[in-house]
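Justification of computing resources. Each target in the renewal requires a structure prediction run like the one illustrated here; the chain below, 186 residues long, is used simply to show the kind of job we budget for.
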Amino acid sequence: MKMSHLRIVYTALNVALFISILFIGITASQPSYDPWLDNTDDGYGGIDDIVATAEHFGASGDPAKLCNITNWPMGTQVPVFYAREITNGGSVGSAWCPTNGFKYMVLLIRADGLTTGEEVEITMSSRIYNDDHTLMAGINVWSITLTSTMSEYNTVLFVPGEQVGFGADALGSTTCIVYASFYLTW
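Resulting structure tokens:
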């Protein structure tokens, strides 16, 4: 009789263990999607991908996978101001420069000839369009003031819009030569 109770307890423990293993197997997390394993490029890892892999089982060749990237813009440098003179508190402006397709801009700015107390403000504006490109707004998105003690500035910024333009305003009676350019990259 004692043996029969132990057998029932062992059987119950085995059933509980089996159910817990089955439950863990059912609730295990799904593998994450890997586009390199999706042979049919349908966004789903399924039996079609297994069939496509099985059809080529045992084949050999170059393991490099062709990867074509289209519409990828080349990095480009855009001169904005080159030796532009600003006299007696005047200002200069640039043309609008296209920046679509790029993520970052490396901005290089310098003002030569500033003396103590003289300042020049460099401003970047951007054209922001609505979804269907029927309306546009130009907004100031970045600025810096250069002085005789900080006459150059280099920085990396996110591209703020599809086009950017620059302005340089000499404050007071400032006279100086302004250089500015940026390099677009992704």
